[in-house]
What does this fold into?
Amino acid sequence: MKPTRKREIWHLKARDFDSGKAHAAQDWRFQMFFEYLRISPSYALATTCKDVGQLAKLLGDDQQAAAVWKTYMEVGNIFEILYREWWLRKGINLFGIHSDRPCVEAVQHIAASQPADELLAASYSELGKFISTSYKAQGMPNSLLVSIPLGMKQATIMRQLKLMLDAMSTTTGDLKSTYQLEKKVNCGTAPYIYEVSQT
It folds into this structure.
């Protein structure tokens, strides 16, 4: 039997990526952001200053000082806290999406026994309710309206859905967090991560 790897107290758990107010994908780059700040001289300098003016004098660059100070104000002092505790207090709110987590949802049941005009009116009404409630609460992610004939084999339905989704873009759309990361690790777009980690 393989020995179980001990989880350090600063390691995140799966449940840590959903605070109830914000949610985020499990991504190791969040910890990289945290560690970058730990080795950033300009960020460390910001933790010793009382305001951005003092930091600007020490750095000799007003624009850089403003960027670093903004990061310090939003992120807090990471030298006084372990990663997991920081994530739960600050990180999830900075990197998380502030909406309900997107989910698959049935909008309406359509039956052939209904007259076409009633069916259209009911469908319009139910779609309107969905858009103004659940869809809005989930941050209005890119979604697909699908007709699933009831009575088909589930395996057939799943196969056809998979083919449909494979043929389409599966990005969620414009769900954005305060701090964002791109696919290239060295080009993270969290505000000021580049300036902070390079100075």
In short: Helices lie at 29-38, 41-46, 52-59, 62-75, 83-95, 116-137, 154-166, 193-198. The radius of gyration is 23 Å.
